[in-house]
Design brief:
The protein is mainly alpha-helical. About 70% of the residues lie in helices and about 0% in strands.
Length: about 210
C-alpha cells in the first residue's frame, strides 16, 4: 500500500472511531455534515481575512487548524454511505489523486461552500488547493488531524457533549494548547496519540482543580 493510501486510510479509520464514540448509530442518523463544512468555512475565512476595507493578515496556525476541522467533516461525508473505512477509501482516493484546484484562497473557500450547499458533497480538489496555499502536505494534514482527533476525543471524555467541558485553559483556548503540545512531540515516535492525550490531560487537570 502506498504511503498516501495508508495515511488516508488511517484518517478514515480514526474518523470512523470518533463518530462511533459520539454516536454508535451515526451512520443511520444521516447527520448534515455538509452544514458543518460550510459553517467551518466561515471561520476559516475569518482567520484568513477577506475584508477589503481594512488591513488583515492571515493567522496561518488557525487557518491550518480550521482546515483540519473541515477535513473531519469531509471524511465523515465519505464514510457516511459505506460500511467500513476501507470501502470509503476507494471513493476518496480517486478525487484525491486529481489535481488541486488553482485559484485564490478565498475563491477556493467559496468553491468548497458551494459544493457543500448546492450538492451536499465535499470538493477534494478545492480542499487540496487550500492545503497548497497553507503550505501543507498530506503528511502535515495527517499530523494535525491526529492531534485534533485526540483533542476531540479528550473533549468527549471530559464532558463536551454534556456541557461540562471547559474550553479555555488559563486564558488559552484548547486549540492553542494543542498546537503547543504538537510542537514538542515527534509524530513518528511510538505512542504519539497516547502522548498527546497525556500532555493535554496534564494541562487540563489543574484547570479543573482551580474551577472547584
Amino acid at each position: 500500500m502506498s504511503e498516501q493510501k495508508n495515511l488516508l486510510l488511517e484518517i478514515l479509520k480514526m474518523q470512523e472511531e470518533m463518530n462511533a464514540k459520539i454516536d454508535p448509530d451515526w451512520r443511520n442518523k444521516q447527520y448534515p455534515w455538509y452544514r458543518a463544512v460550510w459553517t467551518e468555512c466561515a471561520e476559516l475565512m475569518d482567520h484568513h481575512g477577506w475584508k477589503w476595507w481594512k488591513k488583515q493578515e492571515p493567522n496561518w496556525d488557525q487557518v491550518r487548524l480550521e482546515l483540519v476541522d473541515i477535513w473531519h467533516f469531509g471524511m465523515s461525508m465519505f464514510l457516511q454511505n459505506f460500511a467500513t473505512a476501507e470501502d470509503a477509501l476507494s471513493h476518496l482516493e480517486t478525487p484525491f489523486n486529481r489535481p488541486a484546484a488553482i485559484s485564490e484562497f478565498t475563491t477556493l473557500i467559496d468553491r468548497l461552500v458551494q459544493s457543500a450547499l448546492s450538492y451536499r458533497s465535499f470538493s477534494v480538489s478545492a480542499f487540496k488547493g487550500l492545503l497548497h496555499h497553507a503550505g501543507m502536505s498530506l503528511e502535515d494534514l495527517y499530523k494535525l488531524y491526529v492531534g485534533k482527533n485526540v483533542l476531540n476525543s479528550f473533549r468527549q471524555d471530559y464532558g463536551y457533549k454534556t456541557g461540562g467541558y471547559q474550553k479555555i485553559w488559563n486564558g488559552k483556548e484548547d486549540n492553542e494548547v494543542l498546537m503547543l503540545v504538537l510542537s514538542r512531540l515527534d509524530h513518528n515516535q511510538c505512542g504519539y496519540e497516547r502522548r498527546i492525550y497525556k500532555e493535554l490531560e496534564s494541562a487540563y487537570i489543574p484547570v479543573l482543580r482551580d474551577k472547584v
